[in-house]
Amino acid sequence: xxxxxxxxxxxxxxxxxxxxxxxxxxxxxxxxxxxxxxxxxxxxxxxxxxxxxxxxxxxxxxxxxxxxxxxxxxxxxxxxxxxxxxxxxxxxxxxxxxxxxxxxxxxxxxxxxxxxxxxxxxxxxxxxxxxxxxxxxxxxxxxxxxxxxxxxxxxxxxxxxxxxxxxxxxxxxxxxxxxxxxxxxxxxxxxxxxxxxxxxxxxxxxxxxxxxxxxxxxxxxxxxxxxxxxxxxxxxxxxxxxxxxxxxxxxxxxxxxxxxxxxxxxxxxxxxxxxxxxxxxxxxxx
Length: 286
What we know:
The chain is an alpha+beta fold. Helices cover 17% and strands 40% of the residues.
């Protein structure tokens, strides 16, 4: 008779029976190899990743795998998530599709993966079907990518070529200060136009919050920080005088701008909401 622990591990052991594979201890990442899969080239393995972010690495791919992104939550909000995938620049050997009830839609061709661009889609669009490109020699072929689960709104805005650039509403601005990955007060020092986005160099005078270290301190005795925030190219951001309140999200280690009102405008909005008792959270404005 199987113990409860062995029973829970049995599905993973069966998934790894055909070829070498290994989950991270938290089941956020997966690494597999097709070297022992050649005799079963028609088998399709199921991979289950259950975190909000992680990675996949498939060495010497043969046959196909289906990657199921299933967050460990039963919240209705889980159905409104987007999946963002960023392939490694040396990823090759497969084509990546979206599989919804057996119907495939091409997401990334093999030759597109080397660009390392982020691609987002709704979690409702299905699992990832990763199919090896048939070759006699599979050596030096590795498919690798990072993934993140984000809200539908963030997924669409941060990485879509058609990302909107409209100013935030008052309600969105107040909520962004409470919920975004970074909130900082500072000024714009430089704007550089890159291939598909603008890179905004900022100097921060007051750092309220940062999820990861996107802003770097100027030193123990210097209470300033510097960093770079990305924006879609079509937003036409320019350097401006005065102070701003920068908010936004961090995707694959990069900061993306969300709401960025002038600080004096934010102060007026915040104090009005404070008097009306409609602030979603407290912010130290002293």
